[in-house]
## 1
Amino acid sequence: MADTFLDPLPWLIILPLAWASLAFLVGEGRGGRLAVAGLAVQLALALILAVQVMAQGARVHAVGGWGASLGIDLLADGLSVAMLLLTQAVALPLAVYARAYFSEVAQTTFWPLAGFLLAALNALFLSADLFNLYVTLELLSLAAVGLVAMSGKPAQVDAALRYLLVSLTASGAYLMGVALIYGAYGTVSLAGLAPLVGADPPLITQLAAGLMLAGLLAKTALFPFHFWLPAAHGGAPAPVSALLSALVVKATFYMVLRLALGPFAALADDAAPLLGALGAAAILWGSWRALTTHHIKMLVAWSTVAQLGYLFLLFPLLEPGGAALRAGVMQAFAHGLAKAAMFAAAGVLMLSTGRDTLEGLAGVAGRVPVTLFAFALAGVTLMGLPPSGGFLAKWLLIEAALEQGQWGWVVVVIGGGLLAAAYVFKVLRQAFLLAPASAHFHRVPRAMEWSAFLLAAASVLIGLRATEGVALLGVEFGP
Amino acid sequence: MTPGLLYALTGIALFALGLAGVILLRQTLRRILAFNLMGSGAFLVLVGLAQRGGVVDPVPQAMVLTGIVVAVASTALALALARRLAEDGHEDG
Amino acid sequence: MNAPARLAVVGFALALAGALATAVLDLPAAAVDLPAAVAENLSTSGVEHPVTAVLLNFRGYDTLLEIAVLLLALLGMLAVAKPEAVAPEPSAADPMLRFLASVAVPLMILAAGYLLWAGAHRPGGAFQAGAVLAAAAVLLHLAGRLPAWASPSRMLRLGLVGGFLIFLAVAAALLAQGALLRYPPAHAGALILLIEAGLTLSLGLILAGLFLVLARRPASPRAGVGEEGKS
Amino acid sequence: MTPLEALSALLLLAGAAFYLAGTVGLLRFPDVYARLHALTKADNLGLGLIALGLALQAENPAAGLKILLVWPLVLVASAAVSFAIARRAHELGILPAGAESPAPPAPPPEGEARIMPPGDRA
Amino acid sequence: MHARSDRSPSGRFGLRGFLQRGALFTALWWVLAEGRADAWGIGAVSVLLATAASLALAPPGPGRLSAIGLLGFAAFFLAQSALGGIQVAARAFRPRMDLAPALVEVPITLPDGAARILLVNTLNLLPGTVSVGLRGDRLCMHVLDDRLPVAAEVRQVEARIARMLELPA
Amino acid sequence: MTGLEAPLALFLLVNLLAALIRAARGPTPADRMLAALLFGTTGVGVLLLMAHSREAVAMPLVDTALVLALLAAIAGVAFARRAWQAAGRDDDAA
Amino acid sequence: MSLAFDALLALALLWSAWRSLATPDLTRAVVMFIVFGLLMALAWARLDAPDIALAEAAIGAGLTGALLLDALGAFGERRGGDRP
């Protein structure tokens, strides 16, 4: 790089940290503008970084100039850049949405917390150091917990406390894994560890990897660790639910993937059938619960439990350069955009009807058609209909399963898609019913409707720009 | 046995104790204590295992300092949430 | 939770501990020798004490994020703190405690300054100094000399994030040197001292805030009204 | 062993003996107030002697004074804390062992005195 | 330490108080830094802050501290606290503990404020007494042995404190 | 160094633990609070002795003892002023 | 000699940790936890980690202890309010 000062990579971490703390400093009223401006710049930076990485290949930024293992490395390869792009792409429309959604007072707590959350995500996606990942993980958890609790309603505080305790226990397990790894190898750098661990890791490494995996799965809310998610995601304010479901749970999935591709590659094969089976169980159970719930946001939250299952289907099919990895990342991307759109839309629907149940939706189609269209588009992605990103993800997954002759996964993917169709149509059908005479609707700011629509549209359209996405993922994985 | 190894083993026991506690106990305050024990166990393993040869290693020591601060922050937040619930009459300890 | 499940959890914990202990015993020496690397680079790190060098130079990025973690905990607590709760009556403290505070608090300030200074070449540093400052604030509060926080004013907010912003600004400015937080060896000592001084103050305030925000609850009729309070 | 070292050793041993006395007192004394006596007097004296013994060995005067400085700090802290404990115990109506009547010479003001059930007596 | 009589807590402090406290904290800093010369940069700031905090928390009153009284008090205190330790140790080790614990109340004559607090603190560390509460002009104490002349001892400590603070006893 | 430091540190640790048993057993909450006092005196003593039995970290451990001496009171004070009033009721039956 | 010290300290750590989880009364649990924190400070000193010992002494003795005890008071008030 000619000019390191303009290197987008470190700025993706510095910028959100800066606007988050400034938003706290300025207090009421101005945090939102700072956030939207910062996020716009971040999106541009992420795009520049993506172009650079596609052109020049994966890149390492040695913090402090020391390099691993003494210092900490930041790594931008195809996978991390894809996740960074997703983060900024989801966050910017949601920021516009949140400015309209929250009162001034609520915004004074929301922006600092959201800023630190996004900084934690960016730092996590760029980190190439086990202990640094732990710190970013804690940053992420505390920000998420604060956001869940911010309304101060007892149910929310209770959900936040459960979430925090699960999260802390999970971090504890992860930290123990890091401690064992440091004891065994004397380094926590991913690049440094990969050659040291080798093909036949000793017992201590297996235990460490097991502890870390268990902790990360609990944070990802993979079945059967999903118990905390519906309450935390379903009850939070809509922009918060959207951030959590679209991005936060993906962060720990990303870490599992990163570790499975990196230092613990030798162990990934052993864990893969289990992860796949849990993923399948998550798809079926989550979809079923989404189908049977009566609350809009609970439906969307249970749908997250189900959609997370797809991500873990990639592990039994994982092979270098194979379709499964692309499928997983595409699923993360498509689901992130779609789920953000869906929660945003659900927020609009609830504001408009003043109720949080499916029954209350009757007649809403005529009032907020743009939002309902957004909800439907996001549903298209979740169901996996062409030409959406969700379709591409599922198609790649089926392709990988067929290639390897693992037919079982194909059934799960298609079954999950049918169940998703059922719960999405349940919402739409209700919305097109005639409104009862007693119903009265509230006006909803345009900005909220259109930002939800933008997210939903993006989740469908990325299916059309798949070539670029695949090219980005083709960039060699480090370390 | 070097002190490092001894304390690492102690850390393992503390971690297991804390983990069982977090899962089994019902009172929030008790679970916060248990989580702190887990953390302390991991810290002891981090430093003790690294120094099992008797050589002082500043890197895990610095990590533990970071970890302690993170643990205090988490504990305070958890207590704040639990107290908010208690004030609203939804939780007991 | 029923008895078999409890037993299973206990059994699992015991098995885990046993497996970990087995794995830890007879572990060969680690392949990477970081202590040697730290010692080798200590002279260019700007400080003489290895732990401080790791904390603020080699792995300074961790520390930067960790301050953010602390800030976040405080933000979360402020978000859920009840607005209507009022601070306990400060006048109801007993004179013995006031005496303890008036003796101990100046000494704590002195000790914090000492720890900050010591960090450059021996154990100590911003964390410990900040923690001692926070303890001083807690003691003042318990002695009724410092009210609990209703909501932080602009000045207080500046104090809370000031240290973090200084750290962040230095990190960003050093990008011009080629990497995030890459100190030029000639100025490393001064920059680290600047960061540590800022952090001491901010950490002290944040850690104190963790207590003072929590302490916001209505004074109970019995709390703090000792015999002395009436004399 | 130089005379200074001998003196230092003597002080250390004496200090340890007072710590032992404090512990024995804590275990044997009949009530919370008497146990406070054991802690605030015997242990504090033990610490003072040990600090003095170690200060004699210090490399320079400032380092020696620093070790000695620990002692007054502990004194102030333990005086304040023991007062806090004793006062609280008194307020909660905990009686000294052997005191038959629940009334100390002047009972605390209304609402402060709470008489404990007999099982609570030490 | 730096206890003063604050019979008229005015809040203002003169140069004299500032210099006294400043000198005290400078000496303490020197001890903390173990006499190292390169510590005075941060040292100066810390001493200033500590002095300011000290003056704010315990404003010096018009009363003066008698140097001879202070020395005398320190010697008295050291001797008595050694005696206190020995007394407790003797009782703890004796096979049949010969205790006659009781709560007693004695009137005190020292003025309200720092002098009384110093008295309570001192009595806590002296033989046979632990202060339990202070109410009006009466001090409630727990004594290990009520056959000892407690009231006389309190008188003696009061006199010492009064001499040190140059108060009318 | 008189060679007594390490054995005496062990001796004080035994003392501390024996005394802690009393603090843990009660019977009154005040007895438990004695733990705070114990660390102010015995814990600091152990640290000072350890400082002199380990040359490498001698003065830093004196610093630690100093900090502990300054801060051990806080837990005791917090106990008396904040925790005890409620706890007294629960403990009284014990 | 030092092995005996370490072994005793390790046992004490485990004992206080166990008591802080297993004792039926919350107050006792918190006090045992504070004891645990202070014993940890001694353990760090034994591990030649005075930086951590300092932090543990300051945070364990000062801050966490005060936080937990304060919370205990808050919970206790509620509990106390429920029964006469």
Note: Confidence is low (pLDDT under 50) at residues 101-122 of chain D.
## 2
Amino acid sequence: MSRRSQWKQVADGMLGGAGKVRTMEERENVPEKACGFCKNFSENAYASDGRGYCKKLKVGSDIKVDPAVYVMEGEASLTVLFNADGSKCQYFVRMELIDTNGNEVNDPSYRRAQRQMEKAVK
Amino acid sequence: MVAEPARDGSVQELENKQEWWWVAEKKRSKRLDYLRKAVWKKGALGGNYAPGIKLDLECATLFTDMWNFWKYDPIMMRRAKAIAHVLDNKTIFITDHAQLVGYFGSLPHTIMWRVDGASMVNEEAYNEPGIMPEPEQESLEKVAKLNDYWAGQTAVDKVARILDPEDAVKFLSGAIGWGAPSSAYGYSGKDYEYLFAGKRGFEDIIEDIEAAIEKAEEKTVGVPGPEILDIYDRLQNWDAMILVLEAAMRHAKRYARLARTMAENFETDDKRKEELLRLARTCEQVPAKSPRNLQESFQYDHFVQMFARVEAHEGAWPARPDYYHGPYYDKDVNIDKTLTKEEALDLVGEFMIRAYEVGGFAPRWAREGLQGITGTWVWTLGGVNKDGTDACNDLTIAFLQAARLVRVSNPTFGFRWHPKVKDEVMRECFECIRHGLGYPSMRNDPLLVQNAMHWHGHPLEEARTWVHQACMSPCPTTKNGVQPMRMASATANCAKMVEYALHNGYDHVVGMQMGPQTGEASSFTDFEQLFQAWTTQMQWLTNLLVRTVNLGRYKDPEFFGRPFLSGISQRSVESGLDVVSPVGDRGNCWITAFTWVENIDSLAAVKKLVFDEKKYTMEQLITALKANWDGYEQMRLDFVNNAPKWGNDDDYVDDIMIRCLQATARHSHVMKCPSGNNWPILPENVSGNIHYASIVGALPNGRRCGDALYDGGISPGPGLDKKGPTAVLASCGKIDHIADGRAFLLNQRLSPTQLAGEKGYQLWKAYIRTWADLGLDHVQFNMVSDETLRAAQKDPEKYSEVIVRVAGYSAHFVDISRKTQDNIIQRTVQGI
Amino acid sequence: MKCTECSYEAGVSSFRYLYNARIDASMTLRQCPQCQAWLAVDELAGEARQRVTDGDAPWGKSAGIEGLARDVAR
Amino acid sequence: MSTCAECKSFFVREEEPGQGDCVRRVVDPRQAYYQSKPVREDSSSSGCESFQKK
């Protein structure tokens, strides 16, 4: 596969949401095992729309299917939304300290300042 | 009203206690007091908007409706029609006591939402706590609907689709830089020479455009040939410019009508009635016709800024108000005597307040990087005329005085110092600094004029018109010199250069191979190998950012379109091209170099402790860094305290600074902008040093991931400049401030106690003389004591008006995060 | 390390690292994952010293040249 | 059915027959101001909480 094709796959994984129409339910629902509650979730520092990286899984992984597909090696980490459902993911580890305080500054590992997360954490 | 009463005590007592915010409240007019307190502050508190600030759904909806309706029009025309629809239909308002009008949102507490800028920002707006207008559910549904409409067709979506996919992934990782490669989030310079020096109102411009159309049409109805083909597009563009300029004039007339309605139907006070009628006459005159007096001149300028902001999310406010409005001040106050100095001061203060209240919805990284403000409104004062004579005038002084009365954190001033500046003006600058405003920053005008000629080839006369295009970078206000889009996505998180050099290009924060594989640093046997790796990472990082934004700039006329900005720019009026097109732009690009000095202190520490003294091995160092220094505290302290640090006049480390700058400067001549011009670096930080604190890994200068990075530019690390202010200046003076980069930010903290009174002024003036003699281009000061800042942390409401200099901008201390506050307090208070 | 507020006990790195308010000192700020209090931590000793609230500066005042300014000298 | 033209807040635009401005005073927690929004004189005012018959 050419360099461009390889990175195209990564980019599609990362930017795939840009042209996607989402329902209110998809936007509002924060599942019991949402990625945002997981220790392996790291917020993206550029796009603060709630997307982040999984610290364990690489691009090509799919935690929506059953059984989940895990890719552990690769060029880039898997991009997931804070409210993606992580219930099928064996790497889900609940985080004890979730910081919803948006007045402090970026901390990809702990901070989840979205309105939906504020409600869910409370 | 939330107006707090002024603190007890006389002005003199408050001045003695240096409680300048209470002094201002007592000294300013009732009008200014009302207007200042009436502002809904749009700057985010850390990363969150203040309570009560709401997303403007009216303008976003009006814009989208008409954008959708005219879906088959070319992009400039489509945008012009959508903007016109907003201007014709949005809610407007006139605040009690106001003499100047214009806000780009619909109501005073709303933040404009650039709905066509970026899908990811739109989704962020949806997720943002606290900003949905009530009823919340209804607003969320509206926002979701708008987001679904724009998904995939915003300006940034379009650029992202065509970027090299590897570049896109790495840029959007958020690790190496920020900004948006689109003029949708622009920092546009304004062609003040065309508008103000040329004394043109919009009606005059339309005449110019019509003349250009007539000339072009001679060709489109003439002999066929390839040279006439692109004229058809230009004709569409010209039509779009006329359409939006006409809408802008209609919009101003709406204010005129409202002012008359208020005067004739509601107002009972005769004086206010007369003010409202004057305001009506003002809005009937400008922007249609050129201004006749100071109020009209300010109003014209403010309208121009508002219209540009309805068109794009403007992140900066390049302006030179004393230079362009000064003649009207002189006419009204000194010659015709139609305004007293006090009345003029009210207008100047209000002109600043109108800018202060402006704010749009910005993505979180921008809010965190510019905590407390909504953009870098750095207005330029002082400087020289085109012939090199002193340009300071009575309005320069009035701005410096008004700033102390209204105490806004935005706009701030950058003062173009030169040897002919009169003492009375210098005293006014100092008074602003002494009052703790953190501005004006002092800029070395002769040097920066030369710098503009060196890097971008601006002719001398044009270079002398320069204004701050954002925080720091000078840009002329002329036809070919003005830059319509500050290419802000070439904002580099430079600490990653040394981080990647130490980790073979791998980024442990985002878990990605980012930079090139320059070798395992644990196997490096001498400093030259590390430096070579650093150079390769520096070139890779700057290349990527510049490639991205160059493409964004080149495609912008196709992906976004700026009919209004084009309509007020001479080169577009003449050519019919979108002003963002690189054609006719001389080029004035710079790479904003965040987190730069970490490279220098880190490289010096490795050279000293690993390669020279062999106290540690590279392997030990890399292990400690990967552990974020956890378990290596003694070693970390060694790297902080026993390695030379920038800012102490120590050649060991200063030579590394020069070497890094020169390597980068060489590369700056290799990389070219779409106009074929250079890409110099400009080290500064805004509050990016805090935003990036948890994104940059541990470094050999002793920082951990999470620690604030240095406060930026060429400022030494907080608390690490231990040899006094002269040593700081001596280190900084070793840099060639013309050939080594575009400009270099230096923060200094001074003691308010030491600089009290006449003696304090003389000390400061002598300091400035030394600064200029050493050839530095910039310096700015914080002059608020530790006591005050700690007290403000404890009791923020009581100290809500304390202002500090963060980096290239000022902010109210209570609006910045605790980490940023501590970072400022940590800076060394220099005795001079 | 033991939290001074809620007595939660775990290794130092289990406490969320916030920042080092002075790079040249071994005092850092960390956050207790249980009670979320901000703690001043002596990294050399690996011990939490005290809770940090608004306005507290357990690492001392501004760096700088002692004695030149009233606020620095204090 | 009442129309905007019948409302105290309606001010006709003399130069544009049929068009007018809805001008209202607002006092928010920080400032007081007059706001204006374009309306047609024959627009229905039913559902407008601010309607006040002239």
Note: DSSP finds no helices and three strands in chain D.
